[in-house]
Amino acid sequence: MIRWILNNNRIRQSSQYIAAAALCVLMLCFILKLWQANLRIPFFYSGDCVFWATCIKGVIENGWYWQNPAVGAPGILQLYEFPVIDNAVMALMWLMTVFTHNPFLVMNLFYLLSFPLVAISSLYVLRHFNVSFVPALFASLLYAFTPFHFIRNQHHLFYNAYYVVPLAVMVLLWLTTELIVTRSRKFVFSVLIAILLGCSGVYYPFFFCFLLLVAGTLGVLRFRRLRPLVMAFVLIGITTTTIVINLSPSLIYLRQHGHGGALVRNPGEAETYGLRISQLILPITVHRIRSVDLFKRFHNSYVLVTENDSASLGLIGSIGFLGLLFQLLYRKELIANPRGLFHDLSALNICAFLLATIGSFGLLFSLYVSPALRCYNRISIYIAFFSLMAVAYALESIYRTTRTTRSRTIFYVLLAVALIGGTWDQTSTWYIPTYAANKAEFVNDDVFVKRVEASIPAGSMIFQLPYIQFPEVPRVERMYDYDHLRGYVHSKNLRWSFGTIKNRDTDRAQERVASLPPEQLVQELAFGGFTGLYLDRLGYPDQGVAMEAEFSKILQAQPLSSPNGRLLFYNLSDYAKSLRAKYSESEWEVRKELSFHPVLLDWGQGFFKLESRPGKTWRWASNDGELHIRNTSRLPRTIKIETAFATGHPELDDFFISGSISDQLKVSEIPVP
């Protein structure tokens, strides 16, 4: 009998989570109009979305995402300098690839799955802290449908895996309310959650570690013992160790090859991507009510709007946020709770805000510790859970006063109306993907790449123009930074030039070739073993008209064009054969070796970035500057160096050159060759 009761209780608990997930999916269908979607076509088809599809396809083809030989030709894509992947999420998507090898289907399913996972995670935590099912379900669904979730969408795919955040908050509240011993089940769970956070990118675990210090301090003040703070440091150590293990391939690579400068952060970016209290409590941009939208746009016209615009909590979340702020001024618990959780939530909430807000502790960390973390606004998803948990406790206190069937029915009806209204307030028609337009562009690219594949041998290398660095660069005319990856994600057996890490040797070789006059460019591609030339018209101010005319004249052939005319492809096979006939075997091998192995100038310590004016370029240097000249080829070569030296004032100074060339000059503001 007791066993039956236990099993029955488990069934009841399981049914609550199943119901929450089912209701979440049902609501999501209406919010995103999923009946219009094709799950094999990405919901969003530009920018970072194409990069994530590349990573998923790389896992399918290569086992993992660190290296991809089909991208970055003639080298390979190596993501060690761009460790932006959440390994816990990638492991989940790897599991999904067991059932399908379509990267777009995997990406879409994960994005959709993230909503019920967030709802289930937050429901579990709220139920753990004795919030009744209905108020907990209400807060969990609103948390799953935060503006953060929809605005990030597939562009910030991994940040939608914030189902780890409620679990992190659960550990924080354990530290503030209990003296956890190392042999307890909660300690084991805390360690497992710390490991999970450590596998969840960098931002969520970093915020978790910061809040652990806050929670540990609150525990010390409450219990007058050091154990909570010691426990906090133990969990910080476990989280940090897990992060280091996850980043170890990158750390080993950078130790062996040095830092190439692929990701250079400015400490001031902590201000650019910081958080504002106005962005938390004001409505979303493009609100469904036009007057409300204009109200928000008036605010946006006077502040710098970046990704921090996704921080809006919605009306109900804002009420919870303001309630937590008011709790700081009120000595007693606003919401009666034997554990004092409302007060703890208030303290965690204000500390999270003080870390992320503009001109606060986040900026100090960027200035004096590390600028690598810059988007402090992303802690808003922690603040959102604090706020909605506060709302859940307020609803729980009301729920406990309803003792009759009639009063509870009224409570349920009002809560259902509030859920619909809150979801309506937090979402916008702008969050619905443009399914038809995405499909048209997706099919256009797919048809084009399939035609390219049919025209050249498998394994052929394709050089892509215009030259664009990777990763994280501004738009080139009307091209987004990762648009060149569309070729790879649609192909099965070709190699593509785009995707080599910027400032590395292969990238600089590509930059040199792309800067050559068209006739020399085509020659170098033929020498380098490239079979095709791919051109995206949107990367040129004249839509590529001049480049098309030049290449058509040189190659004596018209390009293969995509159905919408955006993409062009030139087959270099015939040109390479005619060029090959002009050289002996040994001569051809020399030209092949030198084509993508140039002499490189490494401006080392003491030199500053290149500056330019029309017809003139220069670099400033400190008193001592190092220039390293490298021959990346296996063959010896003779080079000629021409340069001029000048100072910034008319007086003559002594100037010394040492190294491969040694000389002494008198220099002034007039350049001396």
- Judged by helices, strands and strand pairing, the structural class is alpha+beta
First-to-last CA distance? 97 Å
Count the helices. How many? 25
CA radius of gyration is 29 Å
> What does the main sheet amount to?
5 strands, mixed
Gross geometry: globular
Binned strand content = 5-15%
Nearest-integer average pLDDT: 91
Helix content: 40-55%
Report the count of strand segments. 13
Question: Segments where pLDDT lies below 50 for 5+ residues?
Answer: none
Main-sheet strand order equals: 4-3-5-7-6
Summarize the structure.
By secondary structure, the chain is an alpha+beta fold.
How would you characterize this protein structure?
The protein is of the alpha+beta class and 673 residues long. Helix content is 53%, strand content 8%. The chain is built from 25 helices and 13 strands. Helix 2 (48-62) packs across helix 4, helix 4 (103-128) runs antiparallel to helix 5 and helix 7 runs parallel beside helix 9. The model has no long low-confidence stretch (mean pLDDT 91).
Summary keywords:
five-stranded mixed beta sheet, 673 residues, two-stranded antiparallel sheet, 25 helices, alpha+beta
Secondary-structure blueprint of this entry?
Blueprint: H1 2-32, H2 48-62, E1 67-68, E2 77-78, H3 87-96, H4 103-128, H5 133-144, H6 147-152, H7 164-177, H8 185-198, H9 203-223, H10 227-257, H11 269-272, H12 277-281, H13 290-300, H14 314-327, H15 341-356, H16 361-368, H17 380-399, H18 405-426, H19 435-455, E3 461-465, H20 486-490, E4 495-496, H21 505-514, H22 518-527, E5 530-536, H23 545-555, E6 560-561, E7 567-571, H24 573-580, H25 585-595, E8 599-603, E9 611-613, E10 616-618, E11 627-631, E12 653-657, E13 663-667
Parallel strand pairs: 3-4, 3-5
Antiparallel strand pairs: 1-2, 5-7, 6-7, 8-11, 9-10, 12-13
Helix pairs in contact: 1-4, 2-4, 4-5, 4-7, 5-17, 5-18, 7-8, 7-9, 8-10, 9-10, 9-15, 14-15, 14-17, 15-17, 22-25
